[in-house]
Write a structure and sequence with these properties.
The complex is a heterodimer of chains A (about 400) and B (about 150). With about 400 residues, chain A is an alpha/beta fold. Chain A folds into two domains: about 140 residues, Peroxisomal Thiolase, Chain A, domain 1, CATH 3.40.47.10; about 240 residues, Peroxisomal Thiolase, Chain A, domain 1 (3-Layer(aba) Sandwich), CATH 3.40.47.10. Helix content of chain A is about 35%, strand content about 20%. In chain A, strands 3-2-4-7-1-8-11-10-9 form a nine-stranded mixed β-sheet, sandwiched between helices. A two-stranded antiparallel ribbon of chain A has the order 5-6. In chain A, a hairpin with a 2-residue loop joins strand 5 and strand 6. Chain A is globular. Chain B is mainly β. Chain B has a domain of about 90 residues: OB fold (Dihydrolipoamide Acetyltransferase, E2P). Helices cover about 0% and strands about 45% of the residues of chain B. Chain B is built from no helices and ten strands. Chain B has a five-stranded mixed barrel. In chain B, strands 2, 3, 4 and 5 form a four-stranded antiparallel β-sheet that branches. Chain B is globular and about 50 Å long. The chains are: A alpha/beta (about 400), B mainly beta (about 150).
Chain lengths: ~400, ~150
């Protein structure tokens, strides 16, 4: 039995600060994906929305919100939330319906309208909510966690601020070629070094912004794709949505402390590496098979961490891989040829879908100046707050 | 009227001076340690324990990593918008016997320039902020070479 689903269509609304609601971005992306698939919205049997927590009630029921905006047509509806991993959860929900035979063709949509400045928790006094507590007790914004990880890499692996800056240089050069990116200007290492420190050792240009944006996919069974005339579509071969294993000994957003390993030895891989391993095992491939990767560069230093967690290199060798040009366009495994979050800024529920949009364009050979030569296998990777793994393997 | 001294979170720390400690809990069945405290049931998936006892965490540990907040954090962090923002350092501290990492603010006056990964630090009582009726108390990490 096949476990693959076809990517019939992909679409995006450009990332930016447009000052409109998330519904509009989602609908634009959805219509683009439907047009790309050559399908009418009324052909869709199921819609899955990736929720946003910043749009009020419509954001919590994003699937229905998008369905109503596109025009009620009776489709089955699902809404999912998993922080930064919401897009992968939405893909997984759609895939499950297709593989179970419940729907032939599913529209997946995620969109966000982000406020200016730091993300902050929902209002009210909620001392039982770790996300509220880390702000109330420590003032620990997301960039402070990125700063902790970056400093740890410098101390343990010898990474330098210059290494981190080179991630921005690489990604901004790609983003300059992507019409959906918010930032389309090449950035130099000197410009990174001249930007203000936000959370030592990271500077403003090391840290991704928060953006408005929308992305959508049309997924179908392989049989539906064949009937529809798509003989050789991009196919999703694996979706990893794993959780950590106790004791989880890496300090993760939004936690104030790790689990204790005093009573139980951590077994197997750390969480991020386990996200990739689950994707590789499900896809029946290994890191040596990867043509390109789209990873969550919430900060420049985190991109280097992902190289290691995707097993593109040994732990600690991320900066070396970057310096050797392996992850640049033209290298052995280009990473974030979309421009990454460095060029997009994060639109939370849309971002994991946008990663799959880029991989799809690359595997189709339709990425223009950003095209990775002979791209056959792409992987996306990210991690959502509160223990959500997110990785997708697509092949052609 | 004097302000009441109140912990910013109830039950996470207690004591004064050299007796100040972070408080966690330990499962009486499997000995797993938790901070923030778990009081109802053990989170070890291989343990059915539901009896957890309060324990003080180690007073000293070593810096796992550190950073700072150069910009004013948003609410619910409480700051006086009238005053210029004074950055503070955050330290993630590895406690050897508990085999865990616990985050906290550095004592006021200690900056990232004073810190290094691996440096020994100790937990000390501190004041997070004050409002009309309340002095909100918290824990800070302080390099053991420094006396406030």
């Amino acid at each position: 039995m096949t476990t693959e689903v076809a990517v019939l269509g992909v679409g995006m609304h450009p990332w930016g600060k447009w000052g409109r609601g998330f519904v509009e971005y989602g609908v634009v992306a959805a219509r683009a994906a439907l047009a790309d698939a050559g399908l009418d919205w009324r052909d869709i049997g199921s819609i899955v929305g990736a929720d946003t927590v910043r749009g009020g009630y419509p954001g919590y029921v994003a699937g229905a919100t998008f369905a109503k905006a596109l025009g009620w047509q009776g489709a089955r509806v699902t809404s999912v939330y998993a922080a930064c991993a919401s897009g992968a959860q939405a893909i997984d929900a759609a895939r499950g319906q297709i593989l179970a035979g419940l729907s032939d063709v599913v529209l997946v949509v995620g969109a966000d309208a982000a406020p200016k400045g730091f993300f902050r928790p929902a209002g009210g006094d909620r001392p039982d909510d770790p996300d509220w507590l880390r702000f109330r007790v420590l003032g620990a914004t997301n960039p402070t966690y990125f700063g902790l990880y970056a400093r740890r890499r410098m101390a343990v692996h010898g990474d330098t601020a210059e290494d981190f800056a080179q991630v921005k240089v690489k990604n901004s050069a790609m983003g300059a070629l992507n019409r959906y990116a918010r930032y389309r200007k090449r950035v130099t290492a000197d410009e990174v070094a001249a930007s203000a420190v936000v959370s030592d050792p990271l500077r403003l240009l090391d840290i991704c912004a928060t953006s408005d944006g929308g992305a959508a996919l049309v997924l179908s069974s392989l049989e539906f794709a064949r009937r529809h005339g798509a003989a050789d579509p991009v196919r999703i071969r694996a979706v990893s949505t794993v959780t950590p294993r106790y004791p989880h000994t890496v300090l993760d957003l939004p936690d104030i402390a790790t689990d204790s390993a005093a009573a139980m030895e951590p077994a197997g891989q750390a969480f991020r590496a386990s996200i990739a391993t689950a994707a590789y095992e499900e896809a029946g491939i290994g890191p040596e098979d990867i043509s390109l990767a789209e990873v969550y560069d919430l900060s420049t230093a985190l991109e280097l961490q992902w190289y290691e967690d995707l097993a593109l290199c040994a732990q600690g060798d991320g900066a070396k891989l970057l310096r050797e040009g392996v992850t640049a366009l033209g290298g052995r495994v280009p990473v974030n040829v979309s421009g990454g979050l460095a060029s997009f800024g994060e639109a939370v529920p849309a971002q994991a879908l946008a990663q799959v949009c880029e991989v799809t364009w690359q595997l189709r050979g339709r990425a223009g100046e950003r095209q990775v030569a002979d791209a056959r296998v792409g992987i996306t990777a990210n991690q959502g707050l509160f223990g959500h793994g997110s990785a997708v393997v697509a092949v052609r | 009227m004097p302000r009441t001294r109140t912990p910013v979170v109830a039950g996470w720390f207690s004591g004064e001076g050299d007796d100040f400690r972070l408080l966690g809990t330990r499962c009486t069945r499997c000995a797993s340690v938790f901070f923030p405290r778990e009081d109802s049931r053990c989170r070890n998936p291989g343990c059915a324990g539901d009896d957890l006892e309060e324990i003080p965490l180690s007073r000293r540990g070593h810096v796992w990593s550190y950073t700072d907040s150069r910009y004013r954090p948003p609410s619910p962090y409480v700051t006086d918008a009238e005053l210029p923002w004074e950055p503070y350092a955050l330290i993630a501290v590895e406690l050897e016997s508990e085999r865990m990492v616990v985050l906290g603010q550095a004592v006021p006056g200690v900056t990232v320039a004073d810190l290094a990964v691996g440096m020994e630090v100790e937990v000390v009582p501190g004041v997070l902020g004050e409002d009309a009726e309340t002095t909100w108390t918290t824990w800070f990490w302080r390099p053991t070479g420094v006396r406030a």
